[in-house]
Design the sequence.
């Protein structure tokens, strides 16, 4: 893993957090802060895995599985 890319990833996440989090805390948007934190953690994890050359499966399969599950709920018998 290239240390430069890792440093840029961490720096980008810190800059984004410093820009977004204070406004959410000031306005007491706790749910937004939780979603922002969860999404940021997921993006950081996937990007870190890609930087480490780990084969990450496509998230499209998860989306397709969820869409099929929702479609089956509304399907007529």
Sequence:
């Amino acid at each position: 893993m290239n240390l430069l890319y890792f440093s840029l990833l961490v720096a980008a996440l810190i800059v984004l957090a410093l820009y977004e989090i204070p406004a959410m805390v000031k306005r007491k948007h706790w749910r937004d802060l939780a979603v922002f934190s969860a999404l940021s953690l997921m993006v950081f994890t996937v990007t870190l895995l890609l930087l480490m050359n780990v084969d990450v499966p496509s998230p499209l399969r998860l989306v397709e599985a969820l869409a099929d599950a929702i479609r089956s709920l509304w399907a007529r018998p």
Q: What stands out?
A: The chain is about 80% helix and 0% strand. Residues 24 and 30 are 7 Å apart (CA to CA). The chain has one domain: 3-74. The chain has a mean pLDDT of 91.
